[in-house]
Each structure stands twice: as C-alpha cells, then as structure tokens.
C-alpha cells in the first residue's frame, strides 16, 4: 500500500499545481518545521519598475539614467532590467553601450560607459570601491528603503552621482500563505540579498517576525543560513525562484521552486509550485502529511 499511497499523493499534487520530483519527496516534507522564503520573486512578484531618481546637486539626471541604464542593460537581474527599461524610457534617447562589463553577484554591476568607470548597485558595492554616498543621496535612499523600495546607487569615476529606486509589489497571496504555513506549525523565515530595511518592511507586511529576517545575504552565503538553521535542529524547507537560490534549495531538507522562476531553481528543487503561488507551499505540506498518515 505504501508505494500506491505515495503515487496517489503525487497525482493529487499535480492537480494542486505541485510537481513532485519523486514519490519519496513527500517523506522529507513530513519533518519540516521551518520554512525559509526568498523575497524577490517568491514573496514579491519580482516584476520591478523604476520609481524615483535622485541625483547630486552637480549631476545631471539624464546622464545618471543613461550611464546606469547602459550598464544594467547587460545584466539579467530583475533590478537591472527595471533600471535599464526605465532609463531608456525616461532618458528619451537610445542608451550608449557598455564595455568591460562585470557582474558582482549580490552587489551590482561595474563597467565602462563612454570612457567613464561606472558602478551601479548596492551602497556596499560603492563602499568596497572606496566611494562614499553623500548625505544628499543617503537620506532619500533610507526613506525609500523604509517604504520597501530597493535603492540602487550610481557612481562614476570614483564619485557617487545618484540613487535610483525600484519597486516590486508583494504578491496578494503572500500574507495569506505565511498565515497558512504558520497554522501548520512552521516557523517562517525571510532570506534575501536585499537591504535590511527593505527586508524588514516586506517581512512586516506578510507577517514574518523580525528575529527571523536574514537580509543582505550574499548569494554564496544563503546556503550557510540554511545550514545554521539545520544545526539548530530544524528541518528546513526553502522556497525560492532565482539562480541565487539554487544551492540553498539543494541544501534544504526540502526545496520548493517557484514554477515562474529560473531553470536553475527548478532543477535544484524537490518540488515545483507550478503557478508560483506561495499558498501552494502550504498545500504541499498538508498533502504530504495526509498521504503519509494514510500509509501509517
Ligand atoms: P535577492 O536575494 O533579493 O533575490 P540578490 O542576491 O540577487 O537578491 O541581490 C541582492 C541585492 O543586490 C539586490 O536587492 C540589489 O539591491 C543588489 N543588486 C544585485 N544585482 C544588481 C544589479 N545588477 N543592479 C543593481 N542592484 C543589484
Ligand atoms: Mg528571488
């Protein structure tokens, strides 16, 4: 009866929009007591758009947009796409091309545009290059982050010139999903490479406790967060969508990939939530518990 019940569970999963790698996956789902959620693309839609543009007194807004947009054009990151598309639209002229482009995972991009050495990304990317953010840019950056928008700093030739903000909406179903996961006895945890303030704002909106927010985590360190939770004796499920989440999905006791996400995440996960609806993560846990109690 055991394999049959598992097969039935797998079939029921497909009806719910859950693709299960193998019937044995349902078994690892049973022990899970902690669910780690990626922010961008998992709790939020991941469809970011350019919002505000702040520039220093002596910088030209159009120039900030042109150079930042030119560089971000070469990146696939959701933040980069928002910057490139917004810059092209607002600058009203075609973007110049970039050379010596380099992607700095979890921090941003750098490269050469029209002879300028350009940096676009987190304030930390600039700091690491010895470029400070002046107060006139730090203040709007903080304000935007407190509202849950991601700030993107722009510098060239060693001087910070502007801050752009991009916004991404929390999915309508995310708060409900977190409530359901909690009702199943799971502890929800937020894991993101984004800024602490932005992460706290999103966590508050969906009902994740501040003590369980891990922000500004570099892509290679996401795995360490999972391992630390496991070392505390937790059985960890991870839900993610990005290339950056693949290693964490593979390390978790149970990896759930958003079907709307990248192939790398889907390949690394044990389950795929086909429609990218986080509530289905709760359905998956419920299904596996029900299937396994049928076997017992
Ligand atoms: P997440 O964990 O939220 O999916 P990432 O680890 O990919 O995010 O990136 C972390 C943060 O680094 C982003 O929120 C953004 O602030 C910044 N960042 C990464 N890549 C870029 C880029 N190409 N342009 C601007 N900012 C970037
Ligand atoms: Mg993501």
TrEMBL record:
GO terms for biological process: copper ion homeostasis. The keyword Metal-binding applies. The keyword Membrane applies. Coiled coil: none annotated. GO terms for cellular component: plasma membrane. Keywords: ATP-binding, Cell membrane, Membrane, Metal-binding, Nucleotide-binding, Translocase, Transmembrane, Transmembrane helix. Its main location: membrane. GO terms for molecular function: ATP binding; ATP hydrolysis activity; copper ion binding; P-type divalent copper transporter activity. It is found in: Cell membrane. Belongs to the cation transport ATPase (P-type) (TC 3.A.3) family. Type IB subfamily. This is Cation-transporting P-type ATPase B. It comes from Streptomyces sporangiiformans. The chain holds residues 417 to 712 of 761 of the full protein.
């Amino acid at each position: 009866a055991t394999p049959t019940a598992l097969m039935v569970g797998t079939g029921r999963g497909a009806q719910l929009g859950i693709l299960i790698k193998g019937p044995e996956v349902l078994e690892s789902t049973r022990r899970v007591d902690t669910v780690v959620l990626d922010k961008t693309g998992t709790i939020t839609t991941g469809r970011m758009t350019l919002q505000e543009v702040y520039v220093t007194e002596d910088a030209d807004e159009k120039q900030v947009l042109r150079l930042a947009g030119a560089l971000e054009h070469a990146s696939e990151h959701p933040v980069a796409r928002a910057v490139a598309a917004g810059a092209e639209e607002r600058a009203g002229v075609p973007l110049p091309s970039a050379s010596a482009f380099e992607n700095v995972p979890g921090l941003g991009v750098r490269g050469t545009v029209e002879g300028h050495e350009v940096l676009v990304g987190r304030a930390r990317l600039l700091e690491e290059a010895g470029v400070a953010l002046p107060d006139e840019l730090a203040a709007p950056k903080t304000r935007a982050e407190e509202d849950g928008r991601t700030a993107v700093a722009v510098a060239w030739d060693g001087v910070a010139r502007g801050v752009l903000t991009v916004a991404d909406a929390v999915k309508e179903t995310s708060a409900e999903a977190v409530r359901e996961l909690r009702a199943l006895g799971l502890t929800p945890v937020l894991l993101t490479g984004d800024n602490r303030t932005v992460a706290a704002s999103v966590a508050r909106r969906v009902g994740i406790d501040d003590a369980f927010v891990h922000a500004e985590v570099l892509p290679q360190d996401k795995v360490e967060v999972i391992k630390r939770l496991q070392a505390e004796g937790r059985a960890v499920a991870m839900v993610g969508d990005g290339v950056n989440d693949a290693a964490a999905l593979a390390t978790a006791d149970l990896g759930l990939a958003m079907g709307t996400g990248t192939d790398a995440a889907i390949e690394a996960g044990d389950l795929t939530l086909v429609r990218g609806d986080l509530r289905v993560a709760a359905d998956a846990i419920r299904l596996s518990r029900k299937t396994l109690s049928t076997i017992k």
